[in-house]
Amino acid sequence: MRNILGSIKRKVSSSSGSGTQNNSRAYPMKKDPYGTPSRTGTMKSQYDPPPPAPVPAPLNQGTAPPAYSPVSNAFPVPQIAVSSPQDQTADDPYAFLSSFDTIFLIDDSGSMAGSRWRETQEALEAITPICTSHDADGIDILFLNNPENPYHRNVSSPATVREIFSSVRPRGGTPTGQRLDSILRPYIRQCEQRGPEAVKPLNLIVITDGEPSDDVEAPLISCAKKLDKMDAPAWQIGIQFFQVGRDEGARAHLRALDDELAEIAGTELRDMVDTVPFKGAEGEHLSADGILKVVLGAVNRRLDRKRSKDLHR
């Protein structure tokens, strides 16, 4: 019995020793997943303090952006001066044109053909840029016989004047009164509806060579009476007749419109008509400067008369 027990103990002891050696070879030591420092100190833990943040290199002073500073009105707005006719200097004699609508009524009767037609066209070609420089609306060109055309309104270039005159052929009579009435009646209606102060004053320039074939006095007298009734300014409407040619009958008739209109009407009337006979001597021709000087003179006379009446009230 003792021999059997002793044999069993020796076998158990021998198995335990060999199992320990095999276990050390089969199961090598695992690395600590948490980074526990080893004896050699080469492994770091996540609990170690973080390294210092890197210091950026200094900016190049030559390329550094400027410091911000608020600037008021960085983009200055230009001041726009709005001038009225009264603000214009004496250096510009035609500044008054900015205060008026300018209409040219051209006699296109048969007697205007030839040199008179060319002179009238050249005068308007020269006048147009002067008027347009003071009034962006340009000028209106109407005719006694030729029907109205929208293309003839707001003319602003000499080229357009040439095109208009080349498209109109002088022929027919001289219905000046009828044509004046068709222009003045709608204008007066506007003044009555809106008040004269709300309607731009009108300069109506008539260029003709002959005596009218109809009644001119009636529409002029009617217009003047209505303006007086509205107490419209003295310069609300100005009508200038320019005679081209040497027709003595036409000259006498136009002079009567200027000097005797109130006498014909049998009552006191405002002075709104001026006539200028063009003698047409050798070498003379109708000029833009001559026309505008007459228009300017008529406007100034009316202004002077208005001021004189105001002073004596």
From TrEMBL:
Residues 101-295 form the VWFA domain. Gene3D superfamilies: von Willebrand factor, type A domain. SUPFAM superfamilies: vWA-like. Residues 48-57 have a biased composition (Pro residues). This is VWFA domain-containing protein. It comes from Aureobasidium pullulans (Black yeast). Residues 1-66 are annotated as: Disordered. The lineage of its organism: Eukaryota, Fungi, Dikarya, Ascomycota, Pezizomycotina.
